[in-house]
Amino acid sequence: MTRFGEAEFARVKDIMPAYDYALQIMATKLRIIYMHYESVGDYNPINHIQSRLKSFESMAEKLSRKGLPLTAGAAREYLDDIAGVRVICSFAKDIATVVDTLERQQDIYVVRKTDYIESPKETGYRSYHLIVEVPIYLPADRIRVKAEVQIRTQGMDFWAGMEHKARYKNEGTIPPNLARELRVCSERIAELDRQMSLIHDKIRMFNDDENAAGE
Ligand code: 0O2
Asked: What's the predicted TM-score (pTM) here?
């Protein structure tokens, strides 16, 4: 297992609180959006939200995978997902709603957007990633901290969890046959997402017609 050296580990530990603050802010922002849709009783584009701080092992492993030095400085400069929030939506069309809502928030800065739904990864991975910078007000300082928001459907999340498990169990590599099967499943999930979305539209139209007829 790749690890930080002792001195550097202490420095990495020192930078973690700032990422925790950014994580709390982003998770709260998203929870407020979720709660808003619940309170107005409207359709909620967010199914659920997860958040996590990247583990030290995963940070060291990612730096090493990218050929970067195992230092706190490199982690701060090159790892955009030390603070990570995941938003799980029911339908693919909900993803644009969540992205748009976050982009309109003037107190966070969108640094990068990656649409792995429009252009899935070679593995079959689909998700929308937003890298944001969150301003944090400390007693004597104002800092900006990066966080990653991954937005995906329940189907895409199911797939990513399976693929991650397969990769982890095989020490980072997936046997070609399994990789092929996973790519096929990713296509099927995308098709299922499209079908479910169409069915959802039809149900809403049907309900609207029923309501109009009852007025
Ligand atoms: P973990 O363990 O989930 O934190 P990278 O491509 O990872 O070298 P970068 O620039 O961070 O570098 O980009 P990317 O591709 O946007 O990946 C960020 C995160 O997206 C990953 O973090 C994963 O969480 C997820 N991800 C990207 N590609 C895949 C994939 O093929 N399968 C799965 N299951 N998840 C993926 P980490 O640190 O790699 O992993």
From this structure: 0.94
